[in-house]
Amino acid sequence: MGAKMYSGDVVRAGQTGAFNAVKANLRLFAGLMVAALALWQGANLLDPLHFVQVVNGAGHVSMRMHESPMHMVLRNTVLDFFSAFIAAPAMIAVHRHVLLGEDGRVWDDKPRMLRFASFYFVVSFVVYELPVLSTNQNPFICFPAVLAAYWIMGRLVPAYPALALDVPGAVVTGFKLSNHHWWFIVRVMIIGLLPTLLLMMIVGVIGAIFMALAGQHNVSVHLDVLAVLGGLLGLFISTVGAGLASELYRKFGGLAQPA
Which long-range CB contacts under 8 A does 22-27 form with residues at least 24 apart? Predict the structure, then answer.
């Protein structure tokens, strides 16, 4: 693996690589932003979050979200499926720019795109949706489920750039490269994405406050705003995450693998 790695160095290099990749592929990312906005707005129109009226002791009516975990997982799974085909070209563009210096050829290889999007969808479902279902069934397995999800994420992060570079046995290669480094990988990903994660939390809190103050008639307007922000933030997380994964792949000696 070479010289000792420091998470801050990897984070800075990954964020810079992602930013440079976006600059080099502006038309691609502009189109993906439009697609992400359309997807989230369409999801909001077709299947909005469920709200119920709540009347307090003083007779005031407010709105509260009322949605079962199963319904949330089903909706998110559909979103994850379509999001995979938006995130895949963005992430492939970042991986190939950072690791190969290649730009503008994301759509040249359709099988690569399909493999990458399929892998993205499966990992997203396992890491984000299964823990929700498991903790709904038994709250006592919440911590083990979340820990297992982070372990899976850490072990499979190097597989994304390997897939983007068409490395034979990319998933196995990525899994081997992350051996004994899963916590370092998780730490890099959390630190690198922390500004975006904090922004998502702020947006969520602001949205909840607005919906509580707006009442029943204006809830849909604020849901539209949240859908737009959700689409943009999701694409941003995928893009920055790809930059971080590329640097981790490089640091772990991934470029020495046959391409």
Answer: 22/94, 22/239, 24/97, 24/103, 24/104, 25/93, 25/97, 25/103, 25/104, 25/106
Task: Report whether 226 contacts 65 (CB < 8 A).
Answer: no
> In the numeric block, which tokens belong to residue 3?
């010289």
State what percent of residues in the chain have pLDDT above 70.
68
Helix axis angle, 182-214 to 7-24, nearest 10°: 60
State the average pLDDT over residues 141-146. 72
Q: Structure tokens of 98?
A: 């950072």
Q: How many residues does the chain have?
A: 259
Q: Which two tokens stand for residue 82?
A: 């379509």
Establish how many alpha carbons lie within 13 A of residue 153's alpha carbon, considering only the half-sphere containing its beta carbon: 21
Domain spans, the chain? 7-253
DSSP per-residue codes, 85-114: HHHHHHHHHHHHHHHH---S-GGG-HHHHH
Q: What is the distance between the alpha carbons of residues 206 and 200, in angstroms, rounded to a whole number?
A: 10
- Calculated CA dihedral for residues 156, 162, 164, 166, nearest 10 degrees: -140
Rounded distance between C-alpha atoms, residue 130 and residue 134, angstroms: 6
Q: How many CB atoms lie within 10 A of CB 12?
A: 13
pLDDT confidence bin for 253, thresholds 50/70/90: confident
At residue 238's C-alpha, the angle toward residues 237 and 242, to 5°, is: 115
